[in-house]
Structures are given as C-alpha cells and as structure tokens.
Amino acid sequence: MLREWLNGLAAARYLEYRPGDKTYLLSPEHANVLANEEFSNLPGAFQLVESVVSAAPKVAHAFQTGKPVTTNDFTADLNLGTDRATAPDFKHHLVQEWIPLLPQVQQALGTGATAVDVGCGTGLASIVLAKAFPKSRFAGYDPYEPSIRIARELARKEGVADRVEFVAADSSKLPVGQFELVTIFNSLHHFNEPVTTLRQCRRALKPRGTCFIVDLDLPLDPAENINMAGRWSYSITTLYCLHDSMANQGAGIGSEFNEAVLNRMAAQSGFSRCRKLAGSTPVKAYYELRV
Fold first, then answer.
1. Angle, CA 254 vertex, CA 251 and CA 255 arms, to 5°
2. Is the pTM of this model over 0.85?
C-alpha cells in the first residue's frame, strides 16, 4: 500500500522519485504547502474536502428529489477541517494585514472597543484579536454548540476568557448598538437569509460602526469563471455551501456572490456604504460595510 501511494504521489509530482536508490523525497517547498499546518490552508482543506465528498451520494440524490442535504449528512471532519483550513489566515493575516485595511477599526481596537464575530465556529478569530488588542473586548456567535464549547475552552487555554464571550446563538440574538466591529468570515453566502443577517448585524453596531466581511467575488457569468477560482468555488458550493442555505429554505446563493451582490444586500439591510478593499481575490475578497 505504501509503495502504490508513494508512486501515485510521484506521478502527480508531489514527491520526487529517485530511481538510483528507489527513494522518495518531499521537497521543503512542497512540505510547507502540503504538510505545514501552521502556514498552509491545505492540510485542513483536505480534511474538509474529504467530508463534503463523502456526502456526494446524498448530494446526487438531492438532484433527483430537490431536497438538499443537511449538516447532519456530513462527517465531523466538515467543521474540524474548516477550522484547520482557516486557522493560518487568522493567525498570520487577520491582525497583520486585514485589520490594517480598516484604520478606524484598528485605532478603536487599540484604545478599547467591542467586536463580535458572527458564525465564529471555534472562535479563533476572536481569540487572535483579543491577544493582539488587550484593551478591547470580543464576542463570538454561532448556533452550533459543539463549536462554541471548543471556543470557550480555547479561550481559557489562551488566557483571554475574561475578555472573550462565546454564545451559542445566531445573529438574531445580537445585542443592539453594542459593537464597533462585526466580522463575518467566509460564511455570508451560506446564510439562509443574508439580508436579514446583515440587518441584524447593522443593528448590533454602534453609530459609525463597521462590518468586515471576507467572502467570494466571482463574476455572475460562468464563462468568466473557467479558471481555478471557478473550479474550486462551484465544486464546494455544489457539494456543501448551497445546501447549507437551502436546507433552511434559504436563498441558496452558492457561488453567485460578488461585490455587486453584496452592495445590493448592504443597501437593503440599511448600510450606507459598501466597498471592496485592497488585496481582494475572487475566492477571498475583503469588504467594508459602514453604518
């Protein structure tokens, strides 16, 4: 089994095969991408993909019945893989690159502000921010209780439980006028009622507050997505994201999400400003919404 597996990886050029002594080499460059979980999204992405692909037979049945699969149809690796895949971004980009895109937010967090992450999962984003901005307080809301339990334990381990609160609830439970910053990472296109969610986030913000969103920015014309971004996004939304919304009788946005779509949603939810920020890509775009 090991022989066949190694030969397959060598054929795909992930490994280098050395015929002289019949050995295999994983180069440092490939090791960093494929195996260094501290800096690479791929180890977690492999776990995430394994989970969504395992539900493919049920997704195929959904095409016949019109009834989408639910989160219960996926393995636990779905959430675990998502957390691992997003961790490097939160550890190495959130404070270093993303928050500086919002100078007013960076200043407020430095002097003392409140922020909440909607759809927080296991809470790493809030914990990273709490460690970087010790004068501020943070919260995370997510209806999936197992993730909230992990988030609370992680906050205790990292020594920030006194400044980070995790709540097992969706955005409808956000307190009104409480936060300078609301964040939504990679999940707005999942929500069953994204405009309602944004409206609830706007109400949770203080005057001149900011909502920071990381999500897709794909052309709505499929002909413009015949590329790597389209291959990745359409695949994962077909197997998972679309169903996550449709299972709750939701909008079913899938990959049809970009700056223009978010602009319309932001206007409908009462935000006065929506703009895409520097450094955005089709599968990882940064958006600033202002009250």
1. 135
2. yes
